[in-house]
From TrEMBL:
<dbReference type="InterPro" id="IPR029069">
    <property type="entry name" value="HotDog_dom_sf"/>
</dbReference>
<comment type="similarity">
    <text>Belongs to the 4-hydroxybenzoyl-CoA thioesterase family.</text>
</comment>
<dbReference type="InterPro" id="IPR050563">
    <property type="entry name" value="4-hydroxybenzoyl-CoA_TE"/>
</dbReference>
<keyword id="KW-0378">Hydrolase</keyword>
<dbReference type="GO" id="GO:0047617">
    <property type="term" value="F:fatty acyl-CoA hydrolase activity"/>
</dbReference>
<dbReference type="InterPro" id="IPR014166">
    <property type="entry name" value="Tol-Pal_acyl-CoA_thioesterase"/>
</dbReference>
<dbReference type="InterPro" id="IPR006684">
    <property type="entry name" value="YbgC/YbaW"/>
</dbReference>
<dbReference type="Pfam" id="PF13279">
    <property type="entry name" value="4HBT_2"/>
</dbReference>
<protein>
    <submittedName>
        <fullName>Tol-pal system-associated acyl-CoA thioesterase</fullName>
    </submittedName>
</protein>
Amino acid sequence: MQEQTEIFEWPVTVYYEDTDAGGVVYHSNYLKFFERARTELLRTIGVSQQTLLEQNIGFVVRHMDIDFLQGARLDDHLVVKTSIAELKKASLTFCQEIVNPVGQILCKAMVKVACIDNKKMRPKAMPQSIVMELTQSDR
C-alpha cells in the first residue's frame, strides 16, 4: 500500500522522572516517547484508542529496531518525528526519530505495529477508515 511521506512531529520535554541518577534519559523512556508520538499521530487522523478497544481492536508492537545515538538530558526540549514507512493489511511500520532543537538525531527506531483482535489475540485487518486516513496525502 501507499506509504505516508508526511512527517508528524510531537514535542517532548525531559522531566526528572525520565532520567537516571546522572540526569540522562534512561533508555526505556525513549520507547515511551515513541509510543506517545504514534498515539498522537493516530489522534490527529481521528483514531481513538478507546473506540478501538470497544471494538476489540488493538495495536501491538511486533518488532522494533532502535539505535541510541546520543543521550538526552533533564529539561531538554525534543521533537519526536514519525512517518509511516510501510502500510500492510494488518500492520504498520513507523520510522521514528527523536531530535534536539538543533536537529541532531538522538535516537531512532523502526517500529512494526500489528493490528489484532483483542479477544482472539490474533492478527486482524486494519479498519478501512484508518487505512484511508493514513494513505491520504493532502491532510
